[in-house]
TrEMBL record:
Keywords: Aminotransferase, Transferase. PANTHER family: CYSTEINE DESULFURASE (PTHR43586), PYRIDOXAL PHOSPHATE (PLP)-DEPENDENT ASPARTATE AMINOTRANSFERASE SUPERFAMILY (PTHR43586:SF21). The keyword ATP-binding does not apply. This is Aminotransferase class V-fold PLP-dependent enzyme. It comes from Aeromicrobium senzhongii. Residues 87-286 form the Aminotransferase class V domain. The keyword Transferase applies. Pfam families: Aminotran_5. GO terms for molecular function: transaminase activity.
Length: 343
């Protein structure tokens, strides 16, 4: 058991794999246990989850810096990007970074039959090339190595153009506050730095884009009042981004809302300082180049095996060991890494 920022966590010592999935606060675990008990007792009803959906939506809007009316609830990043990809005209050109997480690139690449092309470029070259494309799609913090796109340059390069800017903030939200409200699309899963379960993701579509999208998964929740839009025609959808809502996964949305509500109360600048401070000290101790991310890529030979032997939970991406410092990590976790790799 450990404490961080006023919450307690059950997670083990040496857990540095938040870039794969985050550990929930005990309050989130308790909320999930309560709803599972209601399920087992047969006392849970669908309307019980409406408040969790509203809480999660508002907290995501706050963390992403977008209007709550622009926020929709999905099951995954890829599913939230599907309507955007489907709305592109035949022959559209999409730009992504080299090695981008495929939940960002595949929804567009799947439309190759309509001559939609997806071009990869080095991350640092995205801003200078973006205005030449119909869409630029990029993770604000790269999953594989934690590299960050220059959002200021990207915004400057695309402002006033017809280029759709799509930002996946999955590896950012929860530890780093950035201005994302200017983008056309902002998406994020809940199960990494937002410390929720899998099965819930959030997206925001800008006003000028939302009317171009078709709610392919229209359902009773897309009507905004699901208990009034359960049966029969005509089609009745909300005027805002809720018309793209999926029918929620009940239990994951409880966990997602509990963690999001707590994170949204934190001073994210303090969280950033904590996470980056540990990451910076790890880079210095391991002789790695400086960085500006909570994710550290370690290309040292046999690093992943040595970390595992030392009880460090990490992952391997693009041939390098990847560690990620979250708000619940400590100096002891850092020391464990340094001892393992400097022995």
């Amino acid at each position: 058991m450990r404490e961080a920022f006023g919450a307690t966590f059950i997670g083990p010592e040496g857990y540095l794999n938040t870039a794969s999935y985050g550990l929930p606060p005990t309050a989130t675990v308790d909320a999930l246990e309560r709803v599972h008990r209601r399920w087992a007792a047969g006392t849970a009803v669908g309307s019980d989850f409406d408040a969790d959906i509203a809480t999660g939506r508002a907290a995501f809007a706050d963390l992403a810096g977008v209007p709550v009316s622009s926020v929709t609830m999905g099951a995954s990043v890829a599913a939230l990007l599907g309507p955007v990809a489907s709305a592109l005209p035949d022959g559209a050109r999409v730009l992504v970074p080299e090695g981008e997480f495929t939940s960002v690139s595949f929804p567009f690449a799947a439309h190759h039959g309509r001559d939609v092309t997806v071009t990869e470029a080095p991350l640092h070259r995205l801003p200078e090339a973006a205005s030449e494309y119909d869409v630029v799609a990029v993770s604000t913090v790269q999953s594989a190595d934690g590299a960050r796109v220059d959002l200021t340059a990207l915004r400057s390069a695309t402002e006033g153009s017809d280029t759709i800017v799509l930002l996946d903030a999955t590896q950012q939200l929860g530890w780093l506050q950035l201005d994302l409200g200017w983008a056309d699309v902002v998406v994020s899963s809940s199960y990494k730095w937002l410390l929720g379960p899998t099965g819930i993701a959030w997206g925001a579509y800008s006003d000028h884009l939302v009317d171009r999208l078709v709610p392919h998964h229209a359902n009773r929740y897309a009507g905004g009042a699901p208990w009034d839009t359960t049966y029969g025609l005509p089609l009745r959808l909300t005027d805002d981004a809720r018309r793209f809502d999926i029918s929620p996964a009940w239990f994951p949305v409880v966990g997602a809302a509990a963690s999001l509500a707590w994170i949204s109360t934190l001073d994210i600048a303090e969280v950033t300082a904590h996470c980056r401070g540990l990451a910076d000290r790890a880079r210095t101790a391991l002789g790695l180049p400086p960085g500006d991310s909570a994710i550290v890529s370690i290309p040292t030979e046999h690093a992943a095996a040595r970390l595992q032997e030392a009880g460090v939970r990490a992952s391997v991406r693009q041939g390098a060991a990847r560690i990620a410092f979250a708000l619940y990590n400590t100096e002891d976790d850092l020391d464990r890494v340094v001892r393992a790799l400097n022995a």
